Amino acid sequence: MTTRINVGEKVLKENDRIAAEIRAELSRKKILSLNLVSSPGSGKTSLLERTFQDLKDTIPMAVIAGDVQTDNDARRLAAAGATLVRPIVTGGACHLDARMVQQAMTGLDLSCCRVLFVENVGNLVCPSSYDLGEDMKVVLISTTEGDDKPLKYPAMFRRSSLMVINKTDLLGHSDFDLERVKDNARRINDKIGILELSCRTGAGLSAWYDWLARTVDSKQRRASKGA
Ligand SMILES: Nc1nc2c(ncn2[C@@H]2O[C@H](COP(=O)(O)OP(=O)(O)OP(=O)(O)O)[C@@H](O)[C@H]2O)c(=O)[nH]1
Ligand SMILES: [Mg+2]
């Protein structure tokens, strides 16, 4: 007689167990963790570069940068002034999982940091299923990708707390419609926050920085109450 084991379910259960450990550790240290997800090339690293350049003297921030190959992003982020940077090269996996993040955190002294960004592998499908112990997922979408993406990849938009629409400097060069993408995202997740910006021109970045500062403060307050 054979017994069927749902391997996928077991893997995700183990992932959730490790994610809970990460979440507890980061809460103890009062560190906000944001998991940045998007299609390849939407601008995750560009947004982090701008954020480190502009806020590095105000908010100490660490980043774990995941890629299938190369540590290009980690090197870009170190050059932009991130307090701490760790690359993860998945060697083929199309998403990060909690074990990879926990391993990357080993030996990383986060005590001086108030934010840990995790830049996930560019992919709108698989990363939505893996909890990395983050407080929130932030999904980026750029104006070159098509405004129907929230409808086509609903899990990612449903599980994200904030949608950042990047590359607004390129609006008008395709038929991407700003109002339509917002409407599509809200049809999937009526609580999703929305920001629009351009990492190229800097338009809209101040609203992202305000959101980040507010979210860091609220994490500090929640973590202090729980302590
Ligand atoms: N025009 C324009 N280009 C941008 C903007 N933001 C990023 N880019 C360009 O888009 C390309 C991809 O940006 P990345 O920041 O590497 O994107 P990513 O999401 O980190 O990519 P992966 O890590 O490979 O998934 C680069 O050539 C950037 O210079 C923007 O606001 N406007
Ligand atoms: Mg990147």
Short description:
The chain is α/β, with parallel strands linked by helices and 227 residues long.
SSE order and pairing:
Blueprint lengths: L6 H22 L3 E6 L6 H12 L5 E7 L4 H8 L4 E6 L8 H8 L9 E5 L16 E7 L6 H4 L1 H5 L3 E5 L11 H11 L4 E4 L8 H22 L1
The structure holds guanosine-5'-triphosphate and magnesium ion.
Magnesium ion (MG) binds next to helix 2.
Task: Give structural notes.
Helix content is 41%, strand content 18%. It has 227 residues and is of the alpha/beta class. A seven-stranded parallel beta sheet has the order 3-2-4-1-5-6-7, sandwiched between helices. Strand 2, helix 3 and strand 3 (84-89) form a beta-alpha-beta unit. Helix 1 (7-28) packs parallel to helix 4 (98-105) and helix 2 packs parallel to helix 3. The longest helix is centred in the first third of the chain and has 22 residues, at 7-28. It is globular, with a radius of gyration of 17 Å. The termini are far apart. Bound molecules: guanosine-5'-triphosphate and magnesium ion (MG).
As a percent range, the share of helical residues equals 40-55%
Order of helices and strands: HEHEHEHEEHHEHEH
The low-confidence runs, each spanning 5 or more residues with pLDDT under 50, are: none
Q: What class, by secondary structure content?
A: alpha/beta
Bound molecules: guanosine-5'-triphosphate, magnesium ion
- Separation, N- and C-terminal Cα atoms: 51 Å
- What is the residue-averaged pLDDT? 95
Q: Which strand order spans the largest sheet, edge to edge or round the barrel?
A: 3-2-4-1-5-6-7
Overall morphology: globular
Strand tally is 7
For the report, how would you describe the main beta sheet?
7 strands, parallel
Beta-strand fraction estimate = 15-25%
Radius of gyration: 17 Å
Give the helix tally: 8
